[in-house]
Design goal:
5-stranded mixed β-sheet; mainly beta; 2 helices
């Protein structure tokens, strides 16, 4: 799998959805052997690139308005956070208000017109917001609209 770097606007909070294998999409450039994703403000990228599988090598950075890296974004996982009812506590639990990236998964979906697409989703948020699903999920209507516009080109 090609190593990947995600450049995310510094104030972005919410869901990122990458849609793969779309002839009408943009091609993610490769720089120094890494695919460089410049995440737009709406969090959705439609790509010509095929979805790759294998050993994951991903980095996430907040960037300024000129796409200069200003800070690495930590990768957070749900299992690091423990609730009151849990018997065994995690002594290394990250702060619950720390903003990080949560990987939500990959799969396939279909538009309202029953056209299929492949996706990869992640969220830039804190555990406090993630656990109540308050991370700005992308409405299906937006994905449908963006794919429709892209595919009619």
């Amino acid at each position: 799998m090609t190593p990947e770097t995600f450049l995310i606007p510094k104030d972005f909070r919410g869901q990122i959805t990458l849609i793969y294998n779309e002839p009408c999409g943009q091609t993610v450039p490769k720089v120094d052997g890494r695919l460089i994703y410049k995440i737009p403000d709406n969090g959705v990228m439609i790509l010509t690139n095929k979805f790759e599988t294998g050993i994951i090598d991903q980095e996430y950075y907040f960037v300024d308005n000129n796409w200069n890296k200003i800070g690495k974004i930590p990768e957070l996982i749900q299992q690091d956070f423990i609730e009151d009812y849990t018997l065994e506590k995690n002594k290394n639990e990250p702060p619950r208000n720390q903003v990080g990236i949560f990987l939500l998964g990959t799969g396939s979906g279909s538009t309202a017109m029953n056209e299929n697409y492949e996706f990869h989703m992640m969220a830039v948020t804190s555990w406090d917001n993630f656990r109540v699903q308050d991370y700005g999920g992308i409405p299906d209507k937006l994905i449908d609209s963006l794919l429709f516009e892209c595919r009619k080109k």
